Amino acid sequence: MTTIVLLRGLMRDSRHWYGFDERLSQRTVPPLFNVICVDLPGNGTLAGQKSPMALQDYCAAVWQQIDAALIAQHKPLEHSPLLLVGLSMGGMLVLTLAAQCPERIKQVVLINSSAANLSPWYHRFQVVGLLAAVVKVLTNAIQNRVSGSQPPKPYHWLEATVLRFTSQQLAIHPQVITAWSKLRQQCHTSFGNGLRQLYASARFQCPKLTGVRVVVVVSNQDKLAHPKCSEQLALFYRTQLHKLEDCGHDASLDKAQQLQQLLIDTLV
Q1: CA–CA separation, 161 vs 139, rounded Å?
Q2: Which residue from 17, 73, 222, 237 has the highest number of Cβ atoms inside 10 Å of its Cβ?
Q3: Which Pfam families match (predicted)?
Q4: CA–CA separation, 217 vs 90, rounded Å?
């Protein structure tokens, strides 16, 4: 059974896989997956911690969570080659982990990720897309106020903006906005930790890897990280670029089934 470790990105945590992790772990036909979700310092279960300013300083907390999960599952650490799957900033971190302990990792999958030594900042974080999402959310709020319509409850404008920015298929889906807003009520990344994570991501440079297979996945409608960023990663690691059509930055939300099949195909 392959152990898959899932890592989310900037200011997101394991809860934001939104069932993608459960569907992977509940497969009843081979290949079977043992799925581990981890949180970065400053996010989710580790929201009370201060986020480091450099990606390599996140690694200890991630390995600790992985090892704790394997021990709880009675799996020997030294005989558990891992498949690391990282979305956005999570992709940067799985590369950092692979460079640190290549002997523990079988394969890494990068989803809509980027690196400072391969792509310019304005491709890595498309500010225009963010501003467009903010404008649309504010416009809808004004229109709803004029018409007397009520947004779904609970509702948080920031979560509605994030969804607009990162999803192509569910950009205005009330159920997802409500779910994201509920998660925010429970706990969320502080503004300061968000800035620290952004700074760490901005400085990331992809390392050379030995003995670890790299798979690169890109969404063709990513409004956050330009698809050219993933193209450059695929060129750097001399690997195939796998494309998800009509899909936004949050690929596990927009194209969950296709992404799951892609993971299966890359292991065959």
Answers
A1: 12
A2: 222
A3: Abhydrolase_6
A4: 13
For residue 244, CA distances in Å to 39, 194, 230, 248 come to 25, 28, 12, 9
Mean pLDDT value of segment 158-162:
95
Distance CA 61, CA 59 (A): 6
User: What DSSP line would sit under 148-180, residue for residue?
Assistant: T----SS--HHHHHHHHHH-SSSTT-HHHHHHH
Q: Which two tokens stand for residue 199?
A: 């700074």
Q: Does the CA dihedral 255-261-263-265 come out positive or negative?
A: negative
pLDDT digits (tens, 9 = 90+) for 80-123: 689 999 999 999 999 999 999 999 999 999 999 999 999 999 99
Give me 210's structure tokens.
């030995």
Residues 6+ apart with CB under 8 A from 105: 81, 82, 83, 84, 97, 98, 212
The verdict on pTM exceeding 0.85 is yes
Asked, as a colleague might, if the bond just before 227 is cis with ω within 30 of 0, I would say no
| Cβ neighbours of 253 (radius 10 Å) | 24
